[in-house]
Write a structure and sequence with these properties.
Largest sheet: 7 strands, mixed
Helix content: 25-40%
Number of strands: 22
Distance between the termini: 28 Å
Bound molecules: adenosine-5'-diphosphate, magnesium ion
Radius of gyration: 31 Å
Structural class: alpha/beta
Number of helices: 21
C-alpha cells in the first residue's frame, strides 16, 4: 500500500514518525536496528534470485515475510503403502513402475504409469507429460506425492510430484503426517519454497514480535498472544489452530484501522481552522427561494446538521446518505450557497464528467438569474476555455466549481475554497486532501451517497464521518413495479412502452457499454436507436443521449424530453443521476445483467416521480449466478439499504466503491463483509484504549504505537493528540 492510498489525511510538514510521543522511548530502541526491517537478501536460505522473486511478491523485509500469510492449508500424510492410501489431503507412497503409456490425445495428451509395491497398485497420470517418456520407465522405483482419487477402486494420482528412490532405500520411520501451509506462490517461487524460507526465518522474526495488548484484554476477547498467532498461522498443527491465529491477526488489522481513524478524528476535532460560515433567517429564506419546491422535513434536518457543522470553525466531515431521488443535491446546494453567501467558494466533485455536466446544467438553471458564478471543468471545457475558467476561480470571480476529482489536481488555485462536496460514494483520496491543504485550504467536507453505506463500511471506512440520513422521499413518489424479462420476451416491454406513450407518458431505455473502447456505451445507443426507430418503436418520437454528444446537444435532447416533445429517450447511464421527468413511467434496462446492483437501483429511481404508476423492466439473459442474483434482488426489493447490503456482499468492499480511489486501507487477512462483529469489537476496544491513553504514550503501548506509525506513517499527526 502506498502512502497516497492511506486513509488518514496527512498534515503538511508532519514531524518524523519518531516524534510521536516525545516522552516515551521508541520501541526497540534499546537494541540494534529492528530485525523485522532486515532486507530479504539477508535471510537464511535466500540468495539473490530468491530475493528478487520475493520482492516481486511484495516481500522486501523479514517483517513482510512474517505477514505473508498462507492462503490455505493442506494435510500431507506420511508415506504409507499403496493399500493404505486415503483420499484426504495430500498422500505419499512408493512403488516400482510396472507399466507406462503415452496417450497423445488432443487437447490434453497424457503420460500414464502404474506403480506396484507388491501389495497394491496405483495409477499415475500426468497431463502434458510427454517429457516424462525419457525419465520414467518400468523397473525404476518412485516416491510420489499427490491427491488420491479412487478409480474402479484403484487409487490414482493426477500430476503427482515424484522422485526416484533406490529400491533398497526404506521410508523414514519417523516421518509424520503434516498439516502444511499453502502460500500464494509465483512461478519461480512455489509454495514449498516459501514454506521453507518462512520456516528458516520464523524464529528470528518471532523474537521481534511484541504483544500489543494487556493480558486482561487478551483474556476478555479470547485472543492468543501475538507471537503465537504468527507462529500458528504459518505452522498450525491443525485447522483449528490456524483459524484461532487468524482471528487474532484479523482483530489486530481492525484495531490498527480503528485506532488510526480514532486518532485522526480526535485530531480534527481538536483543530479550529476551517472557515466559520453563518446563516441567518434572511439568508436562509433567500437560499430556500431558489428551489422550485419546499424541502422535506428530512432535507431540512440535513440542512440543519450542516449549518451546525459549518459554524463551529472545525472542518465539517459529514456523510449525507439518502436513497436515489431523496433530494441530496438540493441539500448540498444549500450548503454551497451558504458558502458563497459567506464569501467563500465551493467545489462539487463527481465520479464522472457526465455527472458533472448534469449537475452543472441543473445548478446553473437554478441560479440563472443570480450573481453566483458557476464553472464546469471537464476534458471538453478544458480544451475550449479552461484557462479563463481557472482564472476566474483564482480571482474569486467564480464561486462554484463543478467537475471530477481531477479538478483538485490540476493546479487550480481557488481564491478561498470553503466547502468541498463529493457526490456519489467517493471519499476524497488522501492525496487530494493533501493537495488542498498544501494550497492552504482546510475546507468543510460533505460526501453524498445514494447507496446507503452498509454497517460494516460505516464502522470502518466512514468511521470518522458524522452521518446524516435523508430517510424520506419528496412527496408524490409512486411505488415502482419491477419486472425481469428474458430477451425473447422483450416485445412485452415495448408493448408496455407503446401503451404508456399512447396514454401520454414517456419512457427511458438504457443500454450498457458494448466493449471497453465504447466510451460510456455510445456505440450501443447509436445502433439501437436506429433499430428501435425502424422496428419496435417505429412511429414514436425517440431521442438519443450519450456522453459523447456535445453539451449543447445534450441540453437540447434533455429539454425536449422534459418538455414532452420526445416520447422515449434511448440513453447510456448518463441518465443515472440527475434527470427528473415526473411524466416518465417506464425504465427499460436492456442487457441489465451488465450493470451492478446499485446502478440498477439508481436507474430505477428515475421513474416513479409523478402521480402515475411506474415500471422498471429489466431485459436480460444472465450468464452468471451473481448476475442472476442481482436481477432477482431488483424484483424482490426496492429498499435502497437492502440493495446496498446485497451489493456489498456480492462484490466486496473494494468493488463497492467502483474504483480504487476510495483511499481505503487494504487488509492482508480481513474480508470486511464477514467481520461485522469483530469490527464492532475492535471499534469498542480502540475507543476504550484511546480514552485511556490518547497519545499511546504509555510504555505498555510502545509496540502498538510503532505498528500504527508503520502503517500510517507521518499521516497520523500524532504529537498533536491530547
Ligand atoms: P438525489 O441526489 O438524492 O438522488 P436529487 O437531489 O437529484 O436526489 O433530487 C431528485 C429530484 O427530486 C430532483 O429533480 C429534485 O428537483 C427533486 N426534489 C428534491 N427535493 C425535493 C422536494 N423537497 N420536493 C420535490 N422535489 C424535490
Ligand atoms: Mg444525486
Amino acid at each position: 500500500m502506498s502512502a497516497a492510498e492511506k486513509p488518514i489525511l496527512p498534515a503538511p510538514g508532519a514531524p518524523p514518525a519518531n516524534a510521536i510521543a516525545p516522552g516515551a522511548p521508541p520501541a526497540g530502541a534499546t537494541g540494534s536496528a529492528d530485525p523485522l526491517a532486515r532486507p530479504v537478501e539477508s535471510l537464511a536460505g535466500v540468495g539473490p534470485a530468491r530475493a528478487k522473486a520475493l520482492r516481486d511478491l511484495g516481500v522486501a523485509t523479514l517483517g513482510d515475510l512474517l505477514e505473508y500469510y498462507p492462503r490455505d492449508y493442506q494435510l500431507e500424510t506420511a508415506e504409507r503403502p499403496i493399500a493404505d492410501l486415503g483420499t484426504d489431503g495430500v498422500q505419499t507412497t512408493r512403488g516400482e513402475v510396472v507399466a507406462v503409456n503415452y496417450v497423445p490425445s488432443r487437447p490434453r495428451p497424457r503420460f500414464e504409469a502404474t506403480l506396484d509395491d507388491g501389495a497394491g497398485k496405483c495409477g499415475l497420470v500426468w497431463f502434458h507429460g510427454a517429457y516424462l517418456r525419457r525419465q520414467i520407465h518400468p523397473g525404476i522405483t518412485l516416491r510420489v506425492k499427490g491427491k488420491v482419487r479412487l478409480f474402479h477402486n484403484i487409487p490414482q494420482m493426477t500430476n503427482p510430484k515424484w522422485e526416484l528412490v533406490e529400491p533398497d532405500e526404506t521410508p523414514d520411520p519417523d516421518a509424520k503426517s503434516r498439516f502444511r501451509p499453502i502460500y500464494p506462490a509465483s512461478s519461480n517461487l512455489p509454495s514449498d519454497t516459501l514454506e521453507r524460507i518462512v520456516a528458516d526465518n520464523l524464529d528470528d522474526a518471532l523474537a521481534a514480535v511484541a504483544e500489543w495488548y494487556s493480558p486482561e484484554l487478551l483474556a476478555r476477547r479470547k485472543l492468543c498472544p501475538r507471537p503465537d498467532a504468527h507462529r500458528l498461522i504459518h505452522q498450525p498443527p491443525d485447522l483449528r489452530a490456524a483459524m484461532f491465529a487468524r482471528r487474532r491477526l484479523i482483530y489486530d488489522e481492525l484495531m490498527l484501522m480503528q485506532l488510526g481513524l480514532g486518532i485522526s478524528k480526535r485530531l480534527r476535532d481538536g483543530r479550529l481552522t476551517a472557515p466559520i460560515l453563518r446563516v441567518d433567517k434572511t439568508l436562509d429564506q433567500r437560499i430556500a427561494r431558489r428551489f422550485p419546491f419546499t424541502m422535506t422535513p428530512a432535507q431540512r434536518n440535513a440542512v440543519f446538521d450542516i449549518i451546525k457543522d459549518l459554524q463551529t470553525g472545525r472542518p465539517m466531515h459529514r456523510l449525507l446518505q439518502g436513497d436515489v431521488g431523496s433530494g441530496k443535491t438540493a441539500v448540498a446546494l444549500y450548503a454551497m450557497l451558504m458558502a458563497v453567501a459567506n464569501r467563500m467558494q465551493a467545489a462539487l466533485l463527481t465520479p464522472t464528467e457526465v455527472l458533472a455536466e448534469q449537475h452543472f446544467l441543473t445548478i446553473s438553471n437554478l441560479l440563472a438569474d443570480s450573481s453566483v458564478g458557476v464553472e464546469l471543468f471537464t476534458s471538453r471545457t478544458r480544451r475550449k476555455r479552461g484557462d479563463d475558467a481557472r482564472q476566474r476561480l483564482t480571482d474569486g470571480e467564480a464561486h462554484l466549481a463543478i467537475g471530477t476529482q481531477a479538478l483538485l489536481q490540476e493546479g487550480i488555485d481557488f481564491a478561498n475554497l470553503g466547502l468541498v462536496v463529493v457526490d456519489e460514494q467517493h471519499k476524497l483520496g488522501v492525496r487530494q486532501r493533501a493537495t488542498l491543504r498544501s494550497k492552504g485550504h482546510a475546507p468543510h467536507y460533505l460526501v453524498m451517497t445514494a447507496t446507503p453505506i452498509p454497517r460494516t463500511l460505516a464502522l470502518s471506512y466512514f468511521a470518522d464521518f458524522d452521518v446524516t440520513t435523508i430517510n424520506e422521499l419528496p412527496p408524490g413518489r409512486q411505488p415502482i413495479e419491477t419486472r425481469w424479462l428474458r430477451s425473447r420476451q422483450a416485445s412485452e416491454a415495448y408493448n408496455l412502452i407503446r401503451h404508456e406513450v399512447a396514454n401520454g407518458r414517456q419512457a427511458y431505455i438504457v443500454l450498457p457499454r458494448i466493449d471497453d473502447d465504447d466510451a460510456d456505451g455510445a456505440q450501443g445507443v447509436v445502433k439501437r436507436f436506429a433499430e428501435l426507430s425502424k422496428k419496435e418503436l417505429s412511429g414514436l418520437r425517440l431521442g438519443m443521449l450519450h456522453g459523447q454528444l456535445p453539451i449543447e446537444e445534450k441540453r437540447r435532447v434533455m429539454e425536449s424530453f422534459r418538455d414532452g416533445q420526445t416520447d422515449v429517450l434511448v440513453a447510456t447511464t448518463v441518465i443515472e443521476v440527475g434527470i427528473d421527468v415526473p411524466n416518465a413511467t417506464v425504465m427499460l434496462i436492456d442487457h441489465a445483467d451488465a450493470f451492478g446492483l446499485s446502478q440498477l437501483h439508481q436507474l430505477r429511481g428515475r421513474v416513479g416521480r409523478g402521480p402515475n404508476p411506474s415500471f422498471c423492466v429489466l431485459v436480460a439473459d444472465p450468464l452468471t449466478d451473481s448476475a442472476e442474483s442481482r436481477l432477482s434482488a431488483m424484483t424482490r426489493t426496492a429498499d435502497g439499504f437492502e440493495i446496498a447490503e446485497m451489493d456489498l456482499a456480492l462484490r466486496g468492499p473494494g468493488q463497492f466503491f467502483g474504483t480504487r480511489q476510495h483511499g481505503l486501507p487494504e487488509f492482508k487477512l480481513t474480508d470486511l463483509t464477514g467481520e461485522l462483529e469483530m469490527l464492532q469489537t475492535a471499534k469498542d476496544d480502540a475507543t476504550a484504549l484511546l480514552a485511556d491513553d490518547p497519545r499511546l504514550s504509555s510504555p505498555r503501548h510502545a509496540a502498538l504505537r510503532r505498528a500504527l506509525l508503520d502503517q500510517f506513517g507521518d499521516t497520523l499527526d500524532l504529537p498533536r493528540i491530547g
